[in-house]
Specification:
Residues 84-292 form the Smf/DprA SLOG domain. One of its GO terms (biological process) is DNA-mediated transformation. Residues 318-375 form the DprA winged helix domain. 50% of the residues lie in helices and 13% in strands. With 380 residues, the protein is of the alpha/beta class. The strands form two sheets. It has a nine-stranded mixed beta sheet, with helices on both faces. Strand 11 and strand 12 (376-379) form a beta hairpin. It starts with 7 loop residues before the first helix and ends with a strand.
C-alpha cells in the first residue's frame, strides 16, 4: 500500500498509534504486520492487549484518543509538501527499512523522493573549528556534485555547514530532526530549515509539536546512519554525539569515514579514535566516492527490483517514465547520448540540480539513463 492510496481512516489510525504511549517502534511494527493495517489494530485492540502487554495508559489512549491532538496532526499533514511515510508503504526509504530499529513512521516536509537517493551523512562537532567547517562545506559540495545527497542532523556547526553547502551548490540535502517536523532546533536554523524544505527534505520520526529532548538525538542519529550508505565524521570530541552516529552506522553495516586532524586539536581526537577502531581515514571526497560508488549501484539494482512488481501492476508500465511524463522526456532530450554533468544538464533543462537528481534516479531505475562516474550521466 502506498501512502498516496491510503484512506483518511487509515492515516488517522496511524496517527493514533504513533502517538500511543507505551508502544515502542518494534512493537508497533509487529502489531501492524500481525493485524494487517493500522485500522485493524485499533478495531481489535482488546485482542492484542495481552500479547503485546498494553499498559493502562496505552489502552486508555487507544480507546479514547485526544481528538484535538489528532485533528491538529491531520491539519499539519493536509498542507502542501507534507507527508507521513509508514514502513508498510512502498515509498518508505529502502535502506532505512533494513535496519533493526527502523521507525514505524516518518513525518516529511519537502521532496520525499530524495530519501531514495544514495546518501552520504556528514556529521561533526557543534563547536567546530573554522577548518572543520571549511572541510564540511568542501566535502558536501564535492559529494553532491558526484551524485550523493547530503544527509545530516540540522545541528549547529558541521551539520549546518554541510546542509548549507549542499543547498548553495544546488545539490540534494536531507535534514533528520530530533524534534517534531514543525519544531526547528536550534532556532537559529529556522532559515536554513526553510531552505531545506523548499529544495530538499526535512524528516522526523516524532509527530508535530514534539520539542527537543536529550534522548531524542541518539534516536535521530540512528536514522541519519540508516538512511545513508556511509557516514563521514569531520570533527568530534571523544564525547561527541557524532561518534554515536558512527557507531550506529557500523552496527548497521554502513561505511564509516573520518578526517584526521592535528594532535593538538581536541576535536580531532574523536576522529582519531574512530580510525583506530577501523574507520577509513580519508583526505579527499574522491576516496569516499570510490568506496561508495559500488554500493550506490547495488542500491539502484535493489530499488529497481523492488519497483518492478509495482510497475508491472500498472497499465502504463511498458510505456516508460519518459513517455508518461513530458518533464522526463524533456530531461532525456536535454541529456543526449554523451556524458553530461548535473550542472550542465541543469542549464540545458532549466531544472534545479536537486530535482534533476531525483528524476535521474527514476530514469536510471527505468533503464533509460546510466551514471558514468564523476557526477555525469548519459542516455542508454
Amino acid at each position: 500500500m502506498t501512502s498516496d492510496l491510503r484512506s483518511d481512516a487509515e492515516t488517522l489510525a496511524w496517527l493514533t498509534l504513533l502517538r500511543a504511549p507505551g508502544i515502542g517502534s518494534s512493537s508497533l511494527r509487529a502489531l501492524i504486520l500481525r493485524a494487517g493495517s493500522a485500522e485493524s489494530v485499533l478495531q481489535q485492540r482488546e485482542r492484542w492487549r495481552e500479547e503485546f502487554r498494553f499498559g493502562e495508559d496505552t489502552l486508555a489512549w487507544l480507546r479514547k484518543p485526544d481528538p484535538q491532538r489528532l485533528a491538529a496532526d491531520q491539519e499539519w499533514l493536509a498542507r502542501e509538501g507534507r507527508q507521513l511515510l509508514t514502513f508498510d508503504a512502498d515509498d518508505y526509504p529502502a535502506l532505512l527499512r533494513e535496519i533493526g530499529a527502523a521507525p514505524p513512521g516518518l513525518f516529511v516536509v519537502g521532496d520525499a523522493a530524495l530519501l531514495w537517493l544514495p546518501q552520504v551523512a556528514i556529521v561533526g562537532a557543534r563547536s567546530a573549528t573554522a577548518g572543520g567547517l571549511a572541510n564540511a562545506r568542501s566535502f558536501a559540495q564535492h559529494l553532491g556534485a558526484a551524485g550523493f545527497a547530503i544527509t545530516s542532523g540540522l545541528a549547529d556547526g558541521v551539520d549546518g555547514a554541510a546542509h548549507a553547502a549542499a543547498l548553495d551548490g544546488g545539490y540534494a540535502t536531507i535534514a533528520v530532526m530530533g524534534t517534531g517536523p514543525d519544531r526547528i532546533y536550534p532556532r537559529k536554523h529556522r532559515a536554513l530549515a526553510a531552505r531545506i524544505a523548499e529544495s530538499g527534505v526535512l524528516v522526523s520520526e516524532f509527530p508535530p509539536g514534539v520539542e527537543a529532548r536529550p534522548d531524542h538525538f541518539p534516536r535521530r542519529n540512528r536514522l541519519i546512519a540508516g538512511l545513508s550508505l556511509g557516514v563521514l565524521v569531520v570533527e568530534a570530541s571523544i564525547q561527541s554525539g557524532s561518534l554515536i552516529t558512527a557507531r550506529l552506522a557500523g552496527d548497521q553495516g554502513r561505511e564509516v569515514f573520518a578526517l584526521p586532524g592535528s594532535i593538538h586539536n581536541p576535536l580531532a581526537r574523536g576522529c582519531h579514535q574512530l580510525i583506530r577502531q577501523g574507520a577509513r581515514l580519508v583526505e579527499t571526497s574522491d576516496e569516499i566516492v570510490a568506496e561508495l560508488a559500488p554500493l550506490a549501484q547495488a542500491l539502484g539494482e535493489r530499488l529497481r527490483e523492488r519497483l518492478q512488481p509495482v510497475a508491472a501492476a500498472t497499465t502504463v508500465a511498458a510505456a516508460g517514465v519518459a513517455q508518461r511524463d513530458p518533464e522526463y522526456a524533456a530531461v532525456l532530450a536535454a541529456l543526449g547520448h554523451d556524458p553530461v554533468s548535473l550542472d550542465e544538464l541543469a542549464v540545458r533543462s532549466g531544472l534545479g540540480v536537486a530535482t534533476l537528481s531525483s528524476m535521474l534516479l527514476v530514469l536510471e531505475l527505468d533503464g533509460e539513463v546510466s551514471s558514468v562516474g564523476g557526477g555525469r550521466y548519459q542516455r542508454i
